[in-house]
Amino acid sequence: MKTLGFLLILPALFPQEKNEAEELLKKSSEKLAAAQSFQCKAQLIVHGAVGDVTVEQTFQCAAGNKLRFEMKGKFKDKELKYLIVSDGSKVRLDLNAPEKHETIDTPADLNVQVLSMIPRLSLRGSVESMCWPVLGGDKPMECMRFNEFKSLKVDKASDREVRSISYLVNQTKPSRGVEGKDTPCTLWIDAKTLLPVKRELKVKLGHGDHLFMETYSEAAVDEKIDPAKFELPKDPK
Question: How far apart are CA 150 and CA 189, in angstroms?
Answer without folding.
Answer: 13
